[in-house]
Every structure is written in C-alpha cells, then in structure tokens.
Specification:
769 residues; binds the ligand CN1c2c(nc(N)[nH]c2=O)NC[C@@H]1CNc1ccc(C(=O)N[C@@H](CCC(=O)N[C@@H](CCC(=O)N[C@@H](CCC(=O)O)C(=O)O)C(=O)O)C(=O)O)cc1; binds 2-amino-4-mercapto-butyric acid; binds zinc ion
Length: 769
C-alpha cells in the first residue's frame, strides 16, 4: 500500500449553510446590527467551515478564503490600493464603501439607537465577472503614481484564528500578477509589479512569522492566453518571493482551464507546488507530469469545482493512472468550491434519481477522500461501485432523454434563425407603430424584490398562503408598479417581475429537463446569491411561462409593456449544466423552448419582447482560439429564439456588463432591435466600440448604476447622455438604468427614476426633438 495522497481544498463557500453571512451583512448595512455582531458571525462561519473540512477528511485546509464581500477587494485593502475618494482608513466601512458606494451625508439610526454613517457620498468601485463565472469581483483601481503598502493583515489574522482553533491552514492569496491584470486606471497595470512585490513579501514574511509554512497563491491568469509581459511579471514576482521568503513554500494555483502556452513558465517558476485543473483540461496531466520537476509538488484538481455532478470515481482513477510512482502529490477540486453550493443533504425535496447524480462542496470533499484512499490501495470498493453505478444510471435514465426534443432540434432550418427583413425596414415600421418620443425611457424589467414580496413567495411555498392569495398579492404589486410608472412618465413599461425568484431559476422551474433546489445557494456578489437550476435532461416547455403576467400588466395601461424573458445563453450559463452533451446542444434546446414563449407572447399581442442575455459575455471561453465557436452557437441560439416574430414586433435584449470589445460583432449579429447595456460606471466609454463598429440598431446605455444605493442626480444622467450622444445618433438612443432594480429599495428607485425621466425631458428640450 502506498502512502496516502493528501486531500486539499483551494477555497470553500463562505456565505454559510443558511446564508448567515448574507443576513449578517445586510443587517449591518441597514443599521439593524452592529459591527461586533457581524464580526462574530463571520468568525463563527469560519470556525464551522474549518471543522467541516477536517471532519470530511480534508488534510490541507485553506484560510483567508473567507471574505466579507470579495477576495479581490480584500487584496486591494491588503496592498493599500484604496483610491483617495474613499479616505485613508483601511477599515470595514471603507471596504464596504468601495464595494457598494455610499450616499452623501447618509446616516441611519437603527432600532438600537446607534448612528450608522454609510460613507462620504462616493461611487462604488466597478464590479465585473471573475473569469468565466457568475461570481463578481471588485475591479482594482490604480493611478500612474500608484504606490502600495501593507494596510490589512486579514490573511495573517485568519491564519492565527484558525491556528488558535487547532487548524494548521494553508492561507490563500490572490496572486500579484492576476491582481494587477484585473485592475484598471493605468495603461498597463503590470508595470506596477515592482511596486507591488514588496507588499506581498511583507505579507509572506508575516505569515511565516505566524507559523505558516505553505501559502496558496492563486494565479488564474495562467489559463489565459500567454503573453511575454505576463510571463515576465510572473517570473519576477516568484523569483523575489523565493529569494526573500524561502521559508514559505508557495503552491501556485491555476484553475478554470489548462496551462496551455503557459505550461513551461508555470512548471519552471521557483515555487514549491503547482495546482492544475484536470477537469477543464484533463489532457494536460500527461505533459504536466512529464515537464514538472520531480520536487515540484503537484496538486491535481480532479473533482469539478464548477459543477455539481457526482464524479465517476473509477473513471477518475483510470485517468490518474499516469501518476503511478510519482510522489509529491495532492488531490483537490479543480478550483475553489466557492462556485458550488455547500451541502446536497439539505435538498430533501429533490427528485431522488437526480439527487443521486449530484455532489455539492461537502460531497466533493468526500469524493476526494475516497479517491485518496483508493490511490493508497485501501479498500473503498463499495464507494467506487456506488459512484460508477450512479454514473451509469444517469447515462441511461429516461429522465435525461426525450426523443421529441432531439427530433425537433435536428429539424431546425437556417431560416428559423432569420428575421423577415433587415433592421432598417423593421425600425421604420416599429417607429410608426409605437410613436415614442426621442430618447424613450424604460427600465430593464425588475422592480424591488422587497421583503414583503419575498415573504409572500416563501409563505406560498410553505403553504401558508394559497395560490389565490399569492396571485392576488402579485397582481396588486404589479398594478402598483404600472400605475407608478405611468405617473412618473416612463414611456415603455415593465410588469416588474414580482412573480420571479430569479431571472433564471424562474424559467428553470417551468421548463422540463431542469431540477431546482431549495438551499443550493452560490454567491454571485457581496451578499447576493443565486440558486442555479440543474439542467439534467432534454429541455422543453410544457406550457406558457410568462404570458398571463404580461397580459395582466398590459390590460392595466395603454402604454406598451415589454414581455420579459431570459435568453437561452443566459439560462445555460447561469445553470449547472449537463456534462454529457456539448453546451451548444443544451443551449439550442433551451432556445427552442424560449422561441415557443416568444411566439405565445406575440400571439397574445405583445409588441415589445425583451430577451435578456446578461450572461452571454461571461460564457466567452478564456482562450481566444475558442471564442468564435462559442459566439457562433450563442448567437444562433439567440436568433433561434427571437427571430420568429413579425417585423413590427420589437425585440429587445439586455446585457449588464462592460466588456463589449471582444463580442461586438456577435452582438450586432444577434440583431435585436434594441439593446440595453451597463455603462454608467464606465462613463459611457464602452460605447466607443458601438461607435467604431457603426452598430446600427437602437441602444439604451445605462445611466443609473443600480449596484449602488446612491440616487443619481438629473445632471449626472444628462452628462452621461451627452457622452452617449458624442458616440451615437440621437435616433438610436434610449434612456434606462444599467440593469434591473430588484436589488434596490423603492426609496432609492423612485427618486432615481423620477430623475431619469427628468433627464430625458431636459435632453429632449435641449436638442429640440
Ligand atoms: C442580474 N444578475 C443575476 C445573475 N445571476 C442570476 N442567476 N440572476 C441574476 O439576476 N448574475 C449577474 C447579475 C447580478 N447577480 C445577482 C445575483 C443575485 C441577486 C439577488 O438578488 N439574489 C437574491 C436571491 C434571489 C432569490 O432567489 N430570491 C428568492 C428567495 C428569497 C429568499 O431569500 N427567501 C427567504 C425567505 C424570505 C422571507 O420569508 O422573507 C428564504 O428562502 O429563506 C425569492 O425571491 O423567492 C439574494 O437575496 O441574494 C441579484 C443579482
Ligand atoms: N430583466 C432582468 C434583467 C437582469 S440582468 C431584471 O430586470 O432584473
Ligand atoms: Zn442586467
């Protein structure tokens, strides 16, 4: 029997089994509880998390994988990259001001009589997607004179906290090169590496003084296309660490893909260990084994940290045959478990078959434990057989395969993905039909999901209120929203999405082929979480999903109400998807289901249908060579669901992110009549690409940053619109917020939208149209 290969995790979910961190944060932010309470909740969560891992047989347990909001923001605080507007203090309130923005002079008195100042009237830092996940990080901001200094000892404090509880942990840091590459504000952030390295050296020394021997440094940039500057920055940083802090062994973690052209760089850096993702890139094992020096510890990411399928353990062992005889190994999930829910056992209502095919973070730790035992020759035959049996049962299950769906898909013809006429013709017809003012105003779909709305839904789910009461409640909310939109003078209305728990989950719950969970929360940003539906089988739409809500809303008003759908690419990208068929195939199935809904909406009289593709950009593969294939099938899926309508039905789409350069041609090919996008934090800069590409269709650039509680002034919005007008023709422009308003409070939304309508009116007067 060979010696046991240690099991490691690279990071774990931090929100808590019952989302304790979410509730503690939101309670603190609203002034209902104090900082000590928040700190204690966080401490308790960390303790539970460490204990759980220990109990599940994890040998190498991380620390500093906890975060109050985001690990990249933690890094900004660690290295003192705090823009001057947030002040000098590297304290928790500065941290939250960077994360969320703060209203000028805004103080609240909580029920205990404490006064809570929420900051100095500053915008939040920009937030964007972490690689190709639905997790958002806070974009570091640098300036040309940027200096760094150690301002937060969180990594050391959490190491010591774990140590005091008896856990010798491996602290995790976001790597300096990844950190810089994710930043903005200077032409080339990597040029700041010389200034940043000393701060990391200081942290590593302090960790060593505290008793750490290994530190995990995450450099997911290693799975992006390599370039000489990144390689040089990596070589420089890790050479200095090896020289200045030789007592610390560094595990360099790559994840979300293969090392590809960075492989030689990675295996030759002066680090003690390298983590490789063998789920996204199983083929790299052989070459990594061949090229890695024997004294380089290899951490093999063999269990999927991005999806929830139970592993076929005998198949994993088969793939690991090549490691025979190599010492110095660990096994681990492919990446941090942050991206999967915590515990499958909470899902008591899941279909038993589907449940038997799944593994969440704790079950993945169990799987690693079994693998480790199997690799050491211990008898785990029963566990291995159970795992293989589950895999075979899933492959053969009639719940997964639907011949009618497969037949419909294979009969799709190219004309089904083509509008009847070009945009110019459609636009004329639509302008005549709608007769909207210049710079029409609208919102993106959702209105505040207040605690009353959530409570009603939760009461309904528990059976505490019946269908009729729930329906009546939602109708009242919808009517109130319609009346209010009319009152403030919005031009194109929305029903408010009060009936939806989430824009993806809501559809997943109504489509065949999806299972949904009750507790499988995954952090999306800050305190916000999602329960991604589980796409396990062929997809179809048993009955209309949104038509009745649209009909009800439209019956209340003469103004146009948009039909509101989530697009196939977004449903796919924000679900846990099948790994037994290509993503493109699953996406086309969803597209046909949404096409049915579009058709039913149109037949019911809907003249404007918005199909949100908020996740199209984040699904872009990390390697450029893979982009076009993805974009081709993603665009085709959008067209398949959206083009079956007549010329004067206006198709809207919405994308709330700020990276369009790479996907602009694809966005144009989607051929939506109107696209609303997120632009407020980037000061309309991202419209440059719409201008340079001469994007012909209509655009609503966001003028209201909905991620912040701040209420934008009229002048801020008119200024943003004048920046938009420098880039696009007036006839193309709509006025709307960056995204839906579900996360905001009515007291923020109301003045903000009143200001937005005022901004539109003043613009119309100024340009006399
Ligand atoms: C637009 N975005 C979305 C992304 N991904 C999605 N899947 N959906 C999105 O909308 N990615 C990018 C962006 C930004 N990301 C997010 C992510 C999450 C939220 C958000 O608001 N999340 C809510 C949870 C939403 C939800 O599922 N609500 C349910 C359950 C509500 C709940 O907590 N119920 C309680 C009981 C309540 C009571 O009794 O009072 C419970 O279950 O215990 C619902 O409304 O029914 C969040 O709060 O985190 C926004 C943007
Ligand atoms: N219609 C959705 C889009 C969010 S990306 C909403 O308004 O919340
Ligand atoms: Zn959005």
């Amino acid at each position: 029997m060979s010696s046991l290969i240690p099991v490691a995790t690279l990071g774990t979910p931090r929100i808590g089994l019952k989302r304790e961190l979410k509730f503690a944060l939101e309670s603190y932010w609203s002034g209902k509880s104090d900082q000590l309470t928040l700190l204690q909740t966080a401490k308790d969560l960390r303790a539970v998390n460490w204990a759980r891992q220990k109990a599940r047989g994890v040998d190498i347990i991380p620390s500093n994988d906890f975060s109050f909001y985001d690990q990249v923001l933690d890094t900004s605080l660690m290295v003192g990259a705090i823009p001057a507007i947030y002040g000098e203090a590297a304290d928790l309130d500065t941290y939250f001001a960077m994360a969320r923005g703060a209203q000028k002079g805004h103080v609240e008195t909580c029920e205990h009589g404490h006064v809570h100042a929420t900051g100095q009237g500053v915008l939040a830092q920009e937030m964007t997607k972490w690689f190709d996940t639905n997790y958002h990080y806070m974009v570091p901001e640098f300036n040309e004179d940027q200096t760094f200094k150690l301002t937060s000892l969180k990594a050391v404090e959490e190491f010591l906290e774990a140590k005091a509880l008896g856990y010798h942990t491996r602290p995790v840091l976001v790597g300096p090169v990844t950190y810089l590459k994710l930043g903005k504000g200077v032409a080339n952030p990597l040029l700041l590496i010389d200034r940043l390295i000393p701060v990391y050296v200081e942290v590593l020394k302090k960790l060593s003084d505290a008793g750490a021997d290994w530190v995990q440094i995450d450099e997911p940039v290693l799975v992006l296309d390599g370039d000489s500057e990144t390689t040089a920055a990596l070589q420089k940083a890790y050479a200095v660490f090896a020289k200045e802090v030789p007592q610390i062994s560094i595990l360099l973690a790559s994840y979300f893909g293969g090392l590809g052209d960075n492989l030689d760089t990675a295996v030759n850096l002066p680090v003690a260990g390298l983590h490789v993702d063998l789920v996204r890139a199983p083929e790299q094992l052989e070459i990594v084994l061949a090229k890695a020096p024997k004294d380089l510890l290899l951490s093999l990411g063999v269990i999927d940290g991005r999806n929830i399928w139970r592993a076929n353990l005998p198949a994993v062992l088969e793939r690991l045959k090549g490691i025979d005889g190599r010492g110095n190994l660990q096994i681990a999930p492919s990446c941090s478990l942050l991206h999967v829910p915590i515990d499958l056992n909470l899902e008591t209502a899941l279909d038993a078959d589907v449940k038997s095919w799944l593994a969440f973070s704790l079950q993945k730790m169990d799987e690693l434990s079994v693998l480790s035992k199997a690799l050491s020759g211990a008898d785990v035959a029963a566990e291995l057989t159970a795992s293989a049996d589950a895999a075979s049962a899933r492959a053969a299950s009639p719940k997964v395969h639907d011949a009618a769906v497969k037949a419909r898909l294979s009969a799709v013809t190219p004309d089904q993905a083509q509008r009847k006429n070009a945009f110019a013709i459609r636009a004329d017809l639509q302008r005549q039909a709608f007769n909207l003012p210049a710079f029409p105003t609208t919102t993106i779909g959702s209105f505040p999901q207040t605690s009353e709305v959530r409570k009603a839904r939760s009461d309904h789910a528990k059976g505490a209120i019946d269908d009729a009461h729930y329906d009546a409640f939602l109708k009242t909310e919808t009517e109130r929203a319609i009346r209010w939109q009319e009152e403030i003078g919005l031009d194109v209305l929305v029903h408010g999405e009060f009936e939806r728990n989430d824009m993806v989950q809501y559809f997943g719950e109504q489509l065949s082929g999806f299972a949904f969970t009750k507790h499988a929360w995954v952090q999306s940003y800050g305190s916000r979480c999602v329960r991604p539906p589980v796409l396990f089988g062929d997809v179809s739409r048993p009955k209309p999903m949104t038509v009745a809500w649209w009909q009800y809303a439209q019956s209340l008003t003469d103004k146009p109400v948009k039909g509101m759908l989530t697009g196939p690419v977004t449903i796919l990208n924000w679900s846990f998807v099948r790994d037994d068929q290509p993503r493109a195939e699953s996406c086309r199935q969803i597209a046909l289901a949404i096409r049915d809904e579009v058709s039913d909406l149109e037949n019911a009289g809907t003249k404007m249908i918005q199909i949100d593709e908020a996740a199209l950009r984040e699904g872009l593969p990390l390697r450029r060579a893979d982009w076009q294939v993805y974009l081709d099938w993603a665009v085709e899926a959008f067209r398949l669901c959206s083009t079956g309508v007549s010329n004067d039905t206006q198709i809207h789409t919405h994308m709330c992110y700020s990276e369009f350069n790479d996907i602009m041609d694809a966005v144009a090919e989607m051929d939506a009549d109107v696209i609303s996008i997120e632009t407020s934090r980037s000061k309309m800069e991202l419209l440059d690409v719409f201008k340079s590409k001469k994007y012909p269709n209509e655009i609503g650039p966001g003028v209201y940053d909905i991620h912040s509680p701040r209420v934008p002034e009229v002048s801020e919005m008119t200024e943003l619109m004048s920046l938009a007008r420098q880039r696009l023709d007036d006839v193309q422009l709509w006025i709307n917020p960056d995204c839906g308003l579900k996360t905001r409070k009515w007291e923020e939304v109301k003045p903000a939208l009143v200001n937005m309508v005022a901004a539109a009116k003043s613009l119309r007067e100024a340009v006399k149209v």
